[in-house]
Amino acid sequence: MPPPALYNPTMAGAAILGLGACLPERVMENEEWTRWVDTSDQWIRERTGIERRRICGPDESSADLAEAAARAALADADCPIEEIDEIVVATDTPEADCPDTAAFLQHRLGARPVPTFDLAGSGCAGFLQALDLCCSRLATGRRRVLLIGVEAISRQMDWTCRDTCVLFGDAAAAVVLGRPQPNRPEVLAVTAGTDGSRAPILGRMIGGNRIPFSAEVLKQEHWSAVVMKGREVFKEAVTRMAEAGRAALELAGLSLDQVDLFVPHQANLRIIEATGKALGLPLDRVFVNVQEYGNTGSASVPLALWEARQAGRIPPGGIVLMTAFGAGFHWAGAVARF
Ligand code: ACO
Fold first, then answer.
1. Is 124 part of the annotated catalytic residue set?
2. 240 and 128 together in one domain
3. 163, 228, 290, 301: which to mutate for ligand 1, most atoms within 8 A of CB?
4. Which of 167, 182, 197 marks a domain boundary?
5. Are residues 171 and 221 in the same domain?
6. What are phi and psi of 320, to 5 degrees?
7. Residues 206 and 285 in one domain
8. What atom of ligand 1 comes closest to residue 47's alpha carbon?
9. What pLDDT digit, counting tens, does each position of 121-175 carry?
10. Does any ligand 1 atom lie closer than 6 A to the CB of residue 233?
11. Domain-ending residue, one of 166, 182, 198
12. First to last CA, the chain
C-alpha cells in the first residue's frame, strides 16, 4: 500500500487523443553561457548532462509557445477547438501576472467561452498535477480537455546567477484528453503529493505578498534568481519520483517489469539515472532528452512524451510510466497505456 500522501482514491482515467509540442527556434549551446557567467561547457555537461537548450526570441512569450503546442495537439487529435470543454495551462512563467495564460490562450485559439485556468506554483510537477485534475474533470462531466505545459523561463530568470541559469530552457507541449475509449492511448492512474515544509528551499520568493516588488528589492543582487538548495533538491527529487512511480503503478495494478518506457521529468541526467536505478529500470527503458532542451519545467514531461512517441520509443499497447518533482515540494506520477 503506498503512503497516504501519494494515494489518490478519486483516480479516474482519460484517453490521450493527441500530443503536440513547440520549441523556440533559437538553440543556445552551453558554451554561450560563458559570455554571461563563470562556467564551462564541461561543468554543465558533467553536473547536469545538458548540452544545449532552446531560448525564446525577443518577441516570443508563454502564450506564443502554448498556442503552437495546443494547435499541434488539436491537429494530432483531429479535434476542432469547438469540441474543447476546458483549457488548463500548467506554468510558472505566465504571460502576465494576472490574468492567467489560459485566458490569453482561450481567445487566441478561438475556443468557446469554456472555463480555463492556470495551475501554477508547483514548478516542474505542474503538468502531472494538472493531469490528475483533468482526469477528475473528465470523470465529472467534461468531454474533452486541452492541457498545456509551458515555460518561457529565459524571459524571467537571472542570467547572471550561474547556480541556476544554466539549468533551464523554454518549451511548450500539449495533450488533448477525452473520456476513456477503446483503442486509444489511455491514462490508467495518476498520483500526486506535497511536502510544504520544504517550500522555502526551491522557487521564486520575491514578487508575492510576503516580499512584494519594490525599488529596494529590485536593487538586490540576483533578486530574480531561482532560490535552490541544489543537493537537497537532487536527493528529494530522486526519492519522491521513485515513490510516485511505484504508487502510480500500484494504482494501475501493474508492476515495474511491465513498464516499456519510463518518462521522468528532465531536470538533470544524474537525477534521471538515479531515479531509474532506484526503480530498478535499466537505462534503455528510460527516455532522456535533457541534453537537448535542459529543464523545461511544466513542459518537460509532455515534451519528453511527445518526443518519445515521435521517435518510435513507445510500442503499440506500451506501458509508459511518468514522474515529476518540483517546487513545493510537489511531485506526481502517472501510468499510461499507448
Ligand atoms: N558553472 C560552474 N560552477 C558552478 C556552476 C556553474 N554553472 N554552478 C555552481 N557552480 C559551482 C558552485 O559554486 C560550487 O562551487 P564551490 O565548490 O566553490 O562552492 C561547485 O560548482 C559545486 O557545486 P555543487 O552544489 O557541489 O554541485 P553539484 O554536484 O551538487 O551540482 C547541481 C549542482 C547541478 C545544481 C545539482 O545539485 C542539481 O542538479 N540539483 C538539482 C537541481 C535541479 O535540478 N533544479 C531544477 C529545479 S527542481 C527540479 O527540476 C527537480
1. yes
2. no
3. 163
4. 182
5. no
6. -115, 130
7. yes
8. 34
9. 999 999 999 999 999 999 999 999 999 999 999 999 999 999 999 999 999 999 9
10. yes
11. 182
12. 26
Question: Does pLDDT of 17 surpass 90?
Answer: yes
Question: What number does the ligand 1 atom closest to the CA of 233 have?
Answer: 41
Query: How many domains does the structure of the chain reveal?
Result: 2
* Closest alpha carbon to 14 in 151, 144, 201: 144
Q: Is the pLDDT of residue 9 over 70?
A: no
CATH of the domain at 27: 3.40.47.10
Question: What percentage of the chain's residues is helix, strand, coil (to nearest 5)?
Answer: 40, 25, 35
pLDDT score for 181:
87
Asked whether the predicted pLDDT for residue 318 surpasses 60, the reply is yes
| Sequence letter at residue 118 | D
pLDDT digits (tens, 9 = 90+) for 39-85: 999 999 999 999 999 999 999 999 999 999 999 999 999 999 999 99
147 and 205 part of one domain: no
Q: Name the residue range of residue 281's domain.
A: 187-337
Q: Is the pLDDT of residue 4 over 50?
A: no
Q: What single string gives the DSSP state of each residue in 146-197?
A: EEEEEE-GGGTS-TT-HHHHTTB--EEEEEEEES--TTS-EEEEEEEEE-GG
Strands 319-326 and 261-264: parallel
The DSSP-derived string for 54-98 is EE--TT--HHHHHHHHHHHHHHHHT--GGG--EEEEE-SS-SSSS
Q: Establish whether residue 219 lines the binding site of ligand 1, counting it when its CB lies within 6 angstroms of any ligand atom.
A: no
Output the CA angle 146-22-206, nearest 5 degrees: 80
Q: Residue 79 class from Cβ within 10 Å (0-12 exposed, 13-18 middle, 19+ buried)?
A: middle
What does the block give as the cell for 314? Answer: 513507445
Q: Is the CB of 329 under 6 A from ligand 1?
A: no
All three cell numbers of 115, joined, read: 472555463
Q: Does the annotation mark 268 as catalytic? A: no
* Size (the chain), residues: 338
